[in-house]
UniProtKB/TrEMBL annotation, chains A, B:
Keyword terms, alphabetized: Cytoplasm, DNA-binding, Iron, Metal-binding, Repressor, Transcription, Transcription regulation, Zinc
Cofactor annotation remark: Binds 1 zinc ion per subunit. Binds 1 Mn(2+) or Fe(2+) ion per subunit.
Subcellular location: Cytoplasm
Protein name: Transcriptional regulator (FurR family) protein
Family: Belongs to the Fur family.
Source species: Candidatus Magasanikbacteria bacterium GW2011_GWC2_45_8
GO biological process: negative regulation of DNA-templated transcription; regulation of secondary metabolite biosynthetic process
Length: 143, 143
DNA sequence: AACCTACTTGCAAACAATTTGCATTTGTGT
DNA sequence: ACACAAATGCAAATTGTTTGCAAGTAGGTT
């Protein structure tokens, strides 16, 4: 284990536990996700990287691996694409249906309440969830 | 406009407003969605119909048209597929990650509260949302 | 520091999902 | 019954995702 970016160290631990190697491609992909302000699709991750830096097949495989070790979470921002964000950065999303901007929102007590009610009513053991709001962002409401 | 199934009449109105024709294929697709107990993917809709009854391309186009006039809503129950349900039957979903069962849950005040808070905080004009919980259903918790 | 081996990668190609073009058919207002 | 725009099926194009395999590499061991 060489000199890898410091701020990703929590992920390196996950890697080691799963016997996954810390490769340049994986570090770059983690960095891209880390710097993102919203979940990214495979295509978007690919676009963030230098052309030819990482093959898109490798991105697919890396994301898949990261999901298995719970290092990334999948969300669904629109009809077309699946998008991914680093675990531990879980939040809900506001998706503007006009300009396609995506804004993160942090969950609060009110939502926890709702989840508790559902749990009680359903007998379901809830492990995770995905919530997206669709509408118009402030700027787009003026047009 | 001939003798079409009575219970779908609210949709016929939407069709006419949008100058969409009421065809056998569309009626059948609406029926399938109407009888479904959970959102269905394109493939599932296709499977519900008699073989060769409606071309899968037509299902794609029909669903797309129905979405445009807000007659169906899209949800994302799992990583692979998009699923659809009739509008007006909007609810949240409990997805069992073990047996893949999907259970509908009806939203309640608690959730409305949460949405209100988000609206106030963000300045977003929320038109719609999508919420899925993932976890283990009661039976699967025992295994 | 060189070595070994299992894990990774890129590339090509298979596969699957979704969309498009076009000739033909059909619903619906007149 | 007629006329025309809209809808359908089929084939083919496009796009998204997965798989097979030979070559390359991380990271523990000597």
């Amino acid at each position: 284990m060489k000199n890898h970016p410091e701020h990703l160290k929590t992920f390196y631990a996950l890697f080691q536990r799963a016997r996954l190697k810390i490769t340049p491609a994986r570090v770059r992909i983690l960095e891209v996700l880390h710097h993102a302000h919203a979940p990214l699709s495979i295509q978007q991750i690919s676009a963030e990287l230098e052309t030819g830096e990482v093959d898109i097949v490798t991105i697919y495989r890396t994301i898949s691996a990261l999901q298995k070790i719970n290092a990334v979470k999948q969300t669904h921002l629109n009809a077309k694409e699946r998008a991914y964000e680093l675990a531990g950065e879980h939040h809900h999303h506001l998706v503007c249906t006009s300009c396609n901007a995506v804004e993160d929102i942090t969950l609060n007590d009110q939502f926890e309440q709702y989840q508790k009610i559902i749990t009680k009513k359903s007998g379901f053991k809830i492990m995770d969830h995905s919530l997206e709001f669709f509408g118009l962002c402030a700027p787009c409401q003026k047009n």
